[in-house]
Design a protein that fits this description.
about 100 residues; alpha+beta; Alpha-Beta Plaits; two-stranded antiparallel sheet; about 15% strand; binds iron/sulfur cluster
Length: about 100
């Protein structure tokens, strides 16, 4: 799979081989979809994780912001994305307050 191919029926996919765990994608996501999870094998001690796939609105902000071209967002023609709900915004706020880390 190259960086721009997205598996079917999946809104967001991440090429973990390209990801360096910088957390930029999690910081720009308005819907609380992406977060950093503890990973002792990673150089930075964490890895990006898709924690709320169902709230992805397909805005592509993460894809555009990733410096390593590690994220692919499904085409709006092929995936029925969510609307940006208050619940999703709240998820994003909670993650921001925890430096985009998944709470233990
Ligand atoms: S912005 Fe890209 S490199 Fe940084 S954590 Fe997200 S997927 Fe990984
Ligand atoms: S496309 Fe938008 S809502 Fe979906 S994970 Fe990326 S930044 Fe978040």
């Amino acid at each position: 799979m190259n960086a721009k191919e997205t598996p079917q029926n999946v809104p967001v996919s991440i090429d973990t081989k390209r990801c360096k765990a910088c957390d930029i994608c999690a910081s720009v996501c308005p819907a609380g979809v992406l977060a950093m999870a503890y990973d002792s094998t990673s150089t930075l001690g964490s890895k990006v994780s898709i924690i709320s796939e169902e709230t992805c609105i397909g805005c592509c902000d993460c894809e555009l912001a990733c410096p390593d071209f590690a994220i692919s967002i499904a085409s709006k023609h092929e995936f029925n994305f969510s609307k940006l709900t208050e619940e999703a915004k709240q998820k994003a706020r909670i993650l921001k307050d925890n430096n985009f880390r998944i709470k233990d």
